[in-house]
Amino acid sequence: MKKLILSVVMVCVWQQVFCWGFYGHRKINYLAVFLLPPEMINFYKTHIEFLAEHSVDPDKRRYAIPEEGARHYIDIDHYGQYPYPELPHNYDSAVAKYTVDTINAYGIVPWWVQTMLSRLTFAFKEKNQARILKLSAEIGHYIADAHVPLHASHNHNGQFTGQNGIHGFWESRIPELLADKEFDFWIGKAEYIKKPGDFIWARVLESGAASDTVLRFEKELTQSFASDAKYSFENRNGTTIRTYSTAFTKAYNDKLQGMVERRMRQSIFAVASFWYTAWVNAGQPDLKTLTNKE
User: What global pTM score does this model have?
Assistant: First the structure.
């Protein structure tokens, strides 16, 4: 009975730790602030902790709001072969072709990012500080998710290839272990995005194209590691958990040739650029004169 309880606890903690994970989303929103122009950066820096902390709100409500889940991914491989010419990038056209139920069933992240951009733009026009901060934090989450290869694959957690846990391995374990020590986050400045729809679809297609590599490389590397070398036990907040070993994590990151770092950097740039684009499209309001600050 004790063994059963321990196993259940370990599974629950595994799912919680690997649930970018909370660490990645917070890091992406936090660093995106420093890419903003002078007219925006002071306001965003003042609220940087809010933007980081609330970057994970969409994940927290995934299982409370039925329609939330589809906003985080798109199983783009459901629609044929890369570059998926049969799938319209216009939402209304896609719904007309496949039905709204099908579109929702296989994910809507590229369309939802555009919806969030429109909402953030409107919040800037209204000079509504509370809405600007909430929407800035949350659009950052969806943009970052669109950069994760397994958010663009039906085999999102390796469940069809015997690789359960790979989703969190790629987006949580690697950044948590390596980002602060090895990743380069000198990125440049945010840029105005002339065609946001084309931009986010390009990033989604990149994710979809990389998903096979993410899965295949993990399987290849596993063959060269003994099972007791692939995994290790660590103490997290007083609880012992089973996780991917440091050696296996570093070897996988090396085999991917910096893919996780590259996608994280691209996420940071994209988040800052979408914030900037919303502000420009709203007429570049003075962020020192905002209302509704609750």
Answer: 0.92
pLDDT means over runs of 10, the chain (294 residues): 38 42 96 99 98 97 94 98 97 98 98 99 98 99 98 98 96 96 97 99 99 98 93 88 95 98 99 99 97 75
For residue 83, cis peptide bond before it (omega within 30 degrees of 0): yes
Q: What would the pLDDT profile of 8-59 be if each residue is shown by its tens digit?
A: 333 333 333 334 889 999 999 999 999 999 999 999 999 999 999 999 999 9
**Over the range 22-39, which residues count as b (16 or more CB within 10 Å of their CB) and which as e?**
bbbbbbbbbbbbbbbeee
Question: CB of 102 within 8 A of CB of 78?
Answer: no
What domains lie within the chain, and their CATH numbers?
2-281 (1.10.575.10)
Helices (H), 61-128: 91-98, 100-105, 109-126
What are the structure tokens assigned to 79, written together? 């629609």
Look up residue 157 and give its two tokens: 């957690």
DSSP state of 128: B
